[in-house]
């Protein structure tokens, strides 16, 4: 998802369109189901009516899937936060270097504790 699709207005618009499509398809399906077949209905008319109901059912499922896709994307945004903008990842090398130093310091502490007090002391040193 690119930056233009991540704005609040764009996400709200997608949500409104998905809900509107869902409601429209459901209304169409209910309308088709409530239509009387009539006494003089031929097999062709019944088949066309069944086909219209199938098309509306498939469109209803697609609208629900679109809404679910939007909720998954919103959850992803909520969990991972927005993606970085240009120039925002420039301190990654420094962060990686600092994390290596912290890892080495923790390993040193655990090694010293295990040498002094035995193998179970490493767990109590933390």
UniProtKB/TrEMBL annotation:
Against InterPro entries, the record matches this protein to: Med22 (IPR009332)
**GO biological process terms held by the UniProt record:** regulation of transcription by RNA polymerase II
Q: Gene3D superfamilies from the xrefs?
A: Mediator of RNA polymerase II transcription subunit 22
Keyword vocabulary terms for this entry: Nucleus, Transcription, Transcription regulation
- Gene Ontology MF: a single term: transcription coregulator activity
What does the record give as the organism's lineage? Eukaryota, Fungi, Dikarya, Ascomycota, Pezizomycotina
Location in or out of the cell: Nucleus
**Family (UniProt):** Belongs to the Mediator complex subunit 22 family.
Query: Does Transcription count among this protein's keywords?
Result: yes
Offer a single GO CC term for the protein. Answer: mediator complex
- Species this chain originates from: Oidiodendron maius (strain Zn)
UniProt main location, coarse = nucleus
Signal sequence bounds: none
The protein, known as: Mediator of RNA polymerase II transcription subunit 22
């Amino acid at each position: 998802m690119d930056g233009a699709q991540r704005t609040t207005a764009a996400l709200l618009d997608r949500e409104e369109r998905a809900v509107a499509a869902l409601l429209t398809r459901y209304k169409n399906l209910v309308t088709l189901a409530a239509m009387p077949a009539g006494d003089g209905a031929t097999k062709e008319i019944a088949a066309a009516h069944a086909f219209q109901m199938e098309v509306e059912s498939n469109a209803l499922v697609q609208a629900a899937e679109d809404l679910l896709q939007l909720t998954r994307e919103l959850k992803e945004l909520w969990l991972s936060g927005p993606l970085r903008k240009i120039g925002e990842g420039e301190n990654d090398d420094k962060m990686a270097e600092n994390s290596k130093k912290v890892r080495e310091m923790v390993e040193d502490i655990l090694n010293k504790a295990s040498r002094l007090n035995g193998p179970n002391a490493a767990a109590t040193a933390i």
